[in-house]
Amino acid sequence: MKALHKSGRKEAGCNGAGLNKPLRSRGWARLALLLLAVLLALPVASPPAAAQEPLPRRNLFDYLFGGPRYERDDRYEQPPPYSRRRYDRDGSIIDMRPRPRRSTGRAAAPRPVQPMVSAAPEPVAKIDNAKQVLVVGDFMAGGIGSELETAFATAPGVAITERSDGSSGLVREDHFDWPGELPAMLDEVKPAVVVVMLGANDRQQMTIGNTKEKFRSDAWFKEYERRVTRLVSIVTSRKLPLLWVGLPSFQSPTATADAVTLNAIYRNQVEKAGGEFVDIWEGFVDEDGKFVITGSDVNGQQVRLRGSDGITFTKAGKQKLAFYVEKLARRHLGEMASPDVVKLDGSNLPALSSLPASPGQAVPTHPISLSDPELDGGKDLLGAAPLPPVLVETPRDKLVRRGELAPAPVGRVDDYRVPAVSAATR
After folding, report:
1. 131-337 belongs to which CATH class?
2. DSSP E strands, 189-253
3. CA–CA distance, 61 with 63 (Å, rounded to integer)
4. Which of 95, 153, 164, 296 sits CB 3.0–4.6 Å from 123 for a disulfide?
5. Residues 6+ apart with CB under 8 A from 414
């Protein structure tokens, strides 16, 4: 039994030793493969020039054994901004590097489109006999006067005189009496054209004698029409061109309806007296005839024309308002509105180089008058002398004088002459 036990243990020991050899070789192989995989997974150090290459992705061993994390190096990822140097007049370098923007966390609001503002023309000196344009009225007339000065700044033959009162009208004569003040203004300025714009402040109660009439009553309209007629007659009785500017639309629908009614009174009385009514309504409404704050300016650009109160005008609105008046005023001003009008006096006359240097020297040529009729070859008008006789009569003369018609050419359709018969055909 002991022998049997020993022999069995020896066999088992022998068999165990034989089995451990392949197990050990397999373990070393696995370890070698593991080390090879780890070496392949390690990142290879690259120079800064290759830092912009795509970064390697993490593999399974990195996730299992905590491999390194690959992060971008901002020092090599984003190159410094390129900037061109600019030099100032004194030779110093102007820094053109872009400034970093601050993040506000929300999108910036779009900036409104700013209209192109043209540079104001350089004003020129007015000549002594420049034609005056007198602008009178309320605050809207004041805007017309200031923009007309800009429009005629380069015309030395036109001067603008603005006499306006912002709170005035035809209702409150106790504040400013236009029929009483206008004659003195006409005598002082002696205008060639008179521009009137009133009515924006007249939508209120009117005092007639000892009674007070409410706006839009029959008595109110009757008295208001009489006052408009009186003011118009002051200008037209002096044979002066009158340009009465109508009211525009307003943001309030009630005020717009009142402006339509007042414009009808202005147009009727002004045109009846021989003046001109300047209709500006279409310039400040949309296609449906409604009030607009933003619209086309004189250059066709979309700009803000009216103030936030829905009554006043912006700078662009005043320019458009004056544009309507300027077109009609130029017709009355004629050549004086041109910028080519100059003042000729002793300071700017051209030099007369053809005259002799000394007063005692004789003029080599005989003076000729520009109005001498002999300059064109004679002093008789055309037709005063009989016409020279015609030696050869034309077909027209033969037909008119003697009734003879010239024979038609041979072969023409109206040649009715019988051709002569030759001897060979007989």
Report:
1. alpha beta
2. 193-197, 206-208, 211-213, 242-245
3. 5
4. 153
5. 408
Residue type, 38: V
Output helix, strand, coil percentages for the chain, rounded to the nearest 5: 35, 10, 50
Query: What would the two tokens of residue 239 be?
Result: 């044979």
Instruction: Please say whether the beta carbons of 309 and 294 come within 8 A.
Output: no
Report the alpha-carbon distance of residue 305 to residue 398 in Å, rounded: 76
DSSP letter string, 249-287: --SSHHHHHHHHHHHHHHHHHHHHTT-EEE--GGGGB-T
d(CA 194, CA 144): 12
Q: Per residue in 320-331, pLDDT tens?
A: 999 999 999 999
The pTM for the full model equals 0.56
For the chain, domain boundaries: 8-74, 131-337
Q: Which position has the token pair 């007309």?
A: 148
Q: What is the mean pLDDT of the chain?
A: 77
- Whole-angstrom Cα distance, residue 170 to residue 383? 64
**Are 240 and 194 within 8 A, CB to CB?**
yes
Tokens of 88: 């100032």
Closest to 325 in 3D by CA, of 419, 219, 243: 243
The one-letter amino acid code at 142 reads G
Structure tokens at 47: 């120079």
